[in-house]
Structure formats: C-alpha cells, structure tokens
C-alpha cells in the first residue's frame, strides 16, 4: 500500500459513490441535490476545513429522503478517517501530518456539534465513533476509560444491531486499549464477550447464496467473527482451545463470495488495522507450523488456503515436496486438486466481433479466462485498461497455455464495436446469446471465471488482484 492509506480510501469512495446521475441532477434544484450536499460536506471536512459548514451540509444530507440512508457510510467510511488517531511513517511529509492534525481537531469539534444537536439520526450514527474517539483521547486515565467503555456497552451493545452504525468495529478497537490496562481487563473481557456473541448471532442473517447488500453484510459479520476468534485465542493457554479458536478464525476468513463483496469490510479492515488485512488464516497456519508435528495437517491447511489465495502455492509446494520427496510432480497434483473442487464448465459457443466463432471445446487443453461485462457497466469499463494489459502481456505471451474471452452482455454489437474502437482495445470480445450468463449464474458485472484445461471452472474473486489470482493459479 502507499503511505497514505487514508487518502486511498477516501478517493475510492469519492469515485465509486459520488458520481451523480445526470438525469436525476437535472430534475432537482442543483444546490439541493443529495450528491452535491455530500460532496460539499466532504470538502469542509478535508480541503476547506470548516466545522459549521460541514455540519450545515450534513444536516441537509440527513434531511433529504434520497440521501439520509448514506449517513452511516459518510460517518464511518469517511469522517472516521479524519478523527481517529493514526501513526505516520518517519519520512512522511511534515506538512501532510500537520494538515491531518489540524483536520482532526476541526472534525472532532464537528462531532461535538452533532452530539449537542437534537437530530437523533445524526447523533445515533456518530455516537460509537464519538465514544471511541474519547477513549483514544484518554489512554492513561483508567477511570475515564472505564466510564466511557461502560457507556459504550450500555448505548451501543444493548441490542444485536452492531452493524448499522458499525458498533462492532469500534468495540473491537476499544478492546485492546482496555486489555492493555490490568485493572480494566475484566471490563475488556465483558466487551469482547458481548461483541463476539452479537457477531456470532449476525452470522445467521445471511446465506451462501446471498447477493446485493446482504452479501456485503455477510462479509462484514464473517470478517469480524474471524477477528473475535483471534482475539479470544490470545487469552487462552490451553493449546487445544487456542487451536480451535484459530481454526474458526481460519474458517470464517473471507471466502470467494466475501472477497467478491469486500466493500463490506474494506473500511473496517483499514480503520482497525491501518493496513490491508485480507484474512486471519496466517494466524492458524503459524500455530500449526509451530505446534503440530504432522506435516500432512499443515499441508492440508495450506492447500485449503491456496485454493482461495493461490499466492500460497509456493509454500504449498515446499511442504508437498517435504512430504512426498522432490521427485513428486507438484504441478500434476495441483491440477488434479483444482479439477476436483471446480465445477464442470457448460459449453460456450458464441459469435465474436470479428465474425469468427469461439468455443471452449476447441480451446480445451488450455486455461480460459472468461470475463462478463457490458458497455453500460462502469466498474467493467474502469478495469478494461488492465484487461487489455493482461491480454497483451500474459495471454499473447502464453498463447499455448491460456486463452481469453470477454462476453458483452445486455448490449448491442454496434455499441460494443464503437466502444472498442474508441478506446483502442483489442482483447477478444464475443456477444452474449442472452443465455450464457444465466447458464453460468453470473451474479453481477464484471464477473470472471477461469476454465481449467480439463474443462472445469472456478470463479475469480472480484477486485484489484484478479490478474495475480489468474497468473498464480495457472502458473503463468
């Protein structure tokens, strides 16, 4: 990650969330559009630093029916970054640090204004962040820490909804601060127990087949549940209990569905840890490596990780040869294992833009990367430069090993052709027959699949690292 993770997250949110729909903007008074109010609020907590103006525009957002639902995201994905204490690298530009500190003061004053106001929606949304900020401000005052922590438990952990205003996130950030003070450790244990129970209960709300907003909610609960098990494991000495807790953290670390909906825990990850923390599998793997003599157990664990995160293949190969000897063919084992867990790939036969015909049957014996997209899909278009780069640098360089097909869905051939010409893209495109996306149960766009040389397929997790996933999986 770059030095300023905070700026990265903010820019991501501004890009994805704040682009107005032109038709909507034209239908309303321009100065009253929800998007404009949100963008103006962001300016006053960042570039133009003015608590009064920020509060004014936040009230407008909260009072508008179309934007009020965005309040939790505005508070806990954006404002939180500007008020929470953070450390900076020693070589960070002092002007940047000073600017952040000034903004932190102003935005804490903004929170005070919100908490003194009568708007219950804003106060309820800000309260968990406000209380955590107060705890951060009093790290050595145990009496005040206990007072604020008890208030947090009363007000934020009184019912099971620890998701809406991210009370679960802040509880797990408060816990280590209390735990570090010996006299507050019983209170820390109470806090963690309540949070763990609520997170566990939340796991029942969604299922493997959940899509849309609930898919992000599923990912959030699973991520926090994994973390609570890591925290609980740190407090037990019995090796069997510790291993059981770490195994649970391993099992509930983001799976393929969660990683495809990682927006559900993206901000929590960076705000809690200050860095990318994609899973809690390493904690379990480290425990096994240090305490379990049976290398087959270690191998099976790494294999389970590698099937979801193929960057672990190097470690898997190392243990594989330790068990089976250097003469054993790891590549053959990997392919057989992938095909065992993958699903049979239904036939694909589609017309290409160049009037040729693509069939996955004729490409048998190669890996095939499939990408479902549309010219109408913003996230699809935004990753097309990376698709083009992957096609030129990886696919064409390994033509005997991998093929690539992108499938334009819900589109017209004229629109797709004009788009490809305008952007000067040359990656292969076929027009959907309006059936293939249903055959492969495409949940959204873009969606990528990787067909194995034996004709099985797996889903490629959505996100910025899809290219790394493919190259590691296929040994490219």
Give the helices and strands, then pairings.
Blueprint: H1 5-17, H2 22-27, H3 34-45, H4 51-63, H5 71-83, H6 94-116, H7 120-136, H8 142-156, H9 167-179, H10 185-202, H11 213-233, H12 239-252, H13 256-260, H14 266-273, H15 281-291, H16 295-308, H17 313-324, H18 330-341, E1 343-344, E2 349-351, E3 357-359, E4 367-373, H19 378-382, H20 384-395, E5 402-408, H21 413-423, E6 429-431, H22 436-439, E7 447-451, E8 456-460, H23 466-473
Parallel strand pairs: 4-5, 5-6
Antiparallel strand pairs: 1-8, 2-3, 4-7, 7-8
Helix pairs in contact: 1-5, 3-4, 4-6, 5-7, 6-7, 7-8, 7-9, 8-9, 9-10, 10-11, 11-12, 12-15, 15-16, 16-17
Commentary on this structure:
This protein folds into three domains: 5-233; 293-341, no CATH class; 344-473, Glutaredoxin, CATH 3.40.30. It is globular. 59% of the residues lie in helices and 7% in strands. The chain has helices at residues 5-17, 22-27, 34-45, 51-63, 71-83, 94-116, 120-136, 142-156, 167-179, 185-202, 213-233, 239-252, 256-260, 266-273, 281-291, 295-308, 313-324, 330-341, 378-382, 384-395, 413-423, 436-439, 466-473; strands at residues 343-344, 349-351, 357-359, 367-373, 402-408, 429-431, 447-451, 456-460. α8 (142-156) runs antiparallel to α9 and α15 runs antiparallel to α16. It has 476 residues and is an alpha/beta fold. GO terms for molecular function: oxidoreductase activity. Keywords: Cytochrome c-type biogenesis, Redox-active center, Signal. This is Alkyl hydroperoxide reductase/ Thiol specific antioxidant/ Mal allergen.
């Amino acid at each position: 990650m770059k030095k300023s993770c905070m700026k990265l997250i903010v820019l991501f949110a501004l890009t994805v969330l704040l682009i107005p729909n032109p038709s909507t903007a034209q239908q309303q008074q321009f100065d009253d559009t929800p998007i404009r109010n949100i963008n103006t609020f962001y300016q006053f907590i960042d570039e133009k630093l003015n608590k009064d103006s920020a509060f004014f525009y936040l009230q407008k957002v909260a009072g508008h029916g179309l934007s009020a639902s965005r309040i939790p995201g505005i508070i806990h994905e954006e404002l939180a970054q500007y008020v929470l204490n953070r450390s900076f690298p020693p070589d960070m530009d002092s002007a940047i640090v000073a600017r952040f500190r000034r903004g932190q003061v102003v935005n804490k004053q903004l929170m005070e204004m919100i908490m003194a106001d009568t708007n219950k929606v804003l106060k309820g949304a800000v309260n968990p962040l406000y209380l955590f900020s107060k705890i951060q401000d009093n790290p050595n005052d145990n009496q005040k820490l206990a007072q604020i922590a008890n208030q947090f438990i009363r007000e934020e952990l009184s019912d099971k909804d620890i998701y809406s205003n991210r009370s679960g996130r802040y509880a797990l950030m408060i816990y280590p601060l209390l735990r570090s003070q010996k006299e507050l450790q019983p209170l820390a244990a109470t806090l963690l127990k309540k949070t763990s129970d609520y997170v566990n209960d939340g796991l029942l709300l969604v299922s493997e087949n959940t899509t849309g907003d609930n898919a992000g909610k599923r990912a959030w609960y699973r991520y926090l549940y994994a973390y609570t098990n890591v925290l609980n494991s740190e407090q037990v000495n019995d090796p069997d209990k510790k291993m059981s807790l770490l195994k649970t953290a391993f099992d509930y670390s983001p799976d393929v569905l969660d990683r495809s909906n990682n927006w559900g825990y993206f901000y929590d990850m960076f705000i809690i840890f200050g860095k990318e923390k994609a899973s809690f599998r390493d904690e379990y793997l480290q425990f096994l490596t240090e305490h379990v003599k049976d290398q087959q157990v270690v191998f099976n664990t790494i294999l389970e990780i590698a099937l979801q995160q193929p960057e672990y293949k190097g470690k898997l190969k190392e243990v594989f040869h330790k068990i089976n000897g250097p003469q054993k063919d790891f590549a053959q084992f990997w392919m057989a294992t992938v095909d065992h867990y993958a699903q049979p790939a239904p036939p694909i036969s589609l017309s290409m833009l160049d009037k040729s015909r693509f069939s996955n049957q004729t490409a048998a014996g190669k890996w095939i990367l499939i990408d479902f997209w549309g010219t109408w899909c913003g996230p699809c278009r935004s990753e097309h430069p990376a698709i083009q780069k992957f096609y030129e640098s990886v696919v064409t360089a390994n033509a005997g090993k991998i093929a690539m097909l992108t499938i334009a869905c819900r589109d017209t051939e004229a629109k797709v052709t004009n788009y490809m010409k305008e952007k000067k893209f040359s990656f292969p495109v076929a027009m959907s027959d309006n059936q293939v996306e249903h055959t492969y149960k495409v949940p959204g766009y873009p969606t990528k699949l990787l067909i194995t040389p034996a004709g099985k397929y797996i889903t490629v997790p959505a996100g910025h690292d899809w290219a790394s996933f493919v190259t590691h999986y296929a040994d490219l």
